[in-house]
Predict the 3D structure of the following.
Amino acid sequence: MAKLNKIFVEKNQMLTETLEAYKAGTLGTQLQKTESGLEYVVLEEGNGPKPQSGQMVTVEYIGVLKEDGKKFDESITRVPPFSFAVGKGQVIPGWDEGIELLSQGSEAVLFIPYQLAYGEAGSPPVIPEKADLVFYVELTDVQ
């Protein structure tokens, strides 16, 4: 468990630093944006396959509110890791879109507008109304 906590602290620091750089406008060309409004930064490019719609993926993540950086969820200290079928609506739309952009082994930060997250209603009491979300994600497996 101590090892998982250490990994969590390291990944959380990466997320915090990237969010601060985003808010300061200093990410430059690292920051990419899709037509839907999803923004993302690839921290480390993986060398595995990119997932296709319907494939099962495993993702380690930390989720925070964009407004204040408050953590609302994470998978790093939990077993088993989080898995889902890409493109099948099992997760928020920003995840379906963002994960398909990554190769297995990639680490990235996804900046997800509320329209691609939990919408106008949010997901009370954890996610407020119209909350933009930020996720550190690591795509650990594509099946």
